[in-house]
Amino acid sequence: MNGPRRKRERCYLRSARFLEPALAQLLHYGPSHGYTLMEQLAEFGLGDLDRAAVYRALREMEEDGWVISAWETQETQGPPRRVYSLTEVGDQMLLDCVQDLQRVREQLDFFLSSYRRHMIEGEGEYHDA
Amino acid sequence: MNGPRRKRERCYLRSARFLEPALAQLLHYGPSHGYTLMEQLAEFGLGDLDRAAVYRALREMEEDGWVISAWETQETQGPPRRVYSLTEVGDQMLLDCVQDLQRVREQLDFFLSSYRRHMIEGEGEYHDA
DNA sequence: TCATCTATTGACAAAATGCACATAGAGAAG
DNA sequence: CTTCTCTATGTGCATTTTGTCAATAGATGA
C-alpha cells in the first residue's frame, strides 16, 4: 500500500505498438515529417508524448520497411526535415494492424461487458479475508 | 526490409497493464490461486502467456495493495498454494482500470472508424516516392 | 549577438518482458 | 522404493522497450 510510490500511469495505448499504426494512418494521407506528425497524433489521443519516441518509431518503421524517408531542404521554416512516405508494404502492414486492433476491440468489449454483467448480477463485492 | 528479422508479435493487450485488471476481475468472483487464474485468463484472450509473468503480476499487485495472499495447505493436489483475495482497495483499482479501458475503447473506435472513413473516401493509396 | 522557434538525433538509465531453469509435494505405475 | 507425471510456485538473467535529458542546427527577428 505504501512502497516506493510507483506512478504506474497505465496508459494502455501509448506504447510504440499503437504509435506505429497511428503514424502509418497519418502517413496514409500523404508524406509528412516527424514534427508535424507529432502534432497530428493528438487526434488519436496521443497528445504530449515524448518527441524522441516518435522519431525513434519512424526510424524503426523505416528499418522494417513501412516507410521511406528523404531529406527535404526546400520550404522549411528551419533546419532540413526528414520527410516520410508510406510504402506499399507499410500500407499492407497498416491493414494488418487494423485487423489486429479490431480483435483487440472485441477482447476489450468482452472484458468490459463481462465486468458489467458481473456487477449487475449483484456479486459486486471484494473478497478480502 | 530485411534486418535481424524481429518478430514483433504486436500483442497489444498482453502486457502487465492488461493482466492486472484481468486478474482482478477474476478474483472478484472469489479468492483463487495463480495456477487456476492462469487457466481462466484464456477467457479474456490471454491464453498461453508466461507463467512467471502471472506470478510476478500477482506479487506486484500484493505490494500495491490490490490483493492479499495466504498459504493454503489443505485441499491441494500437490504442493501448497498461495491463495489470493481481492482487497477493497483492489476493488476500487479495478473500477478505475475499467474506466480507463472504456476510454481506450473509445480511442480505438475513433482510430478504426477513422481508418474506415479514410478508405471509403477512396484515398486508399500509399504514398511511396 | 542573442533569443526563440522549428526540427532531428544521441546517449543512457530504468522498467518491462521473455525464457530457461529450479524447487517441491502428491499420486500412480512398475 | 524408484521413477514418472501432474500440480504449483518461484529465481535469475539477457534482451527489449520506455522515459528523460541533453546536443545539434538552420531560420528569423529584435
Number of domains of chain A: 1
Q: What portion of the residues of chain A fall into strands of 2 or more residues? A: 5-15%
Number of DSSP helical runs of chain A:
4
**CATH homologous superfamily title of chain A:** Winged helix-like DNA-binding domain superfamily/Winged helix DNA-binding domain
Give helix % range of chain A.
40-55%
Q: At the first level of CATH, what is the class of chain A? A: Mainly Alpha
Taking Cα atoms only, what radius of gyration of chain A do you get, to the nearest Å?
20 Å
Query: How does the major sheet of chain A shape up?
Result: 3 strands, antiparallel
> Would you tell me the structural class of the helices and strands of chain A?
mainly alpha
Question: Which CATH architecture of chain A is right?
Answer: Orthogonal Bundle
Shape of chain A: elongated
Question: Would you list the SSEs of chain A in sequence order as H and E?
Answer: HEHHEEH
Can you count the beta strands of chain A? 3
Query: How far is the N terminus from the C terminus of chain A?
Result: 16 Å
The assembly state of the depicted protein chains is: homodimer
Strand order of the largest sheet of chain A: 1-3-2
Low-pLDDT segments, ≥5 res of chain A: 1-8
Greatest contact pair?
A-B, 58 and 58 residues
Average pLDDT confidence of chain A is: 85
CATH topology of chain A: Arc Repressor Mutant, subunit A
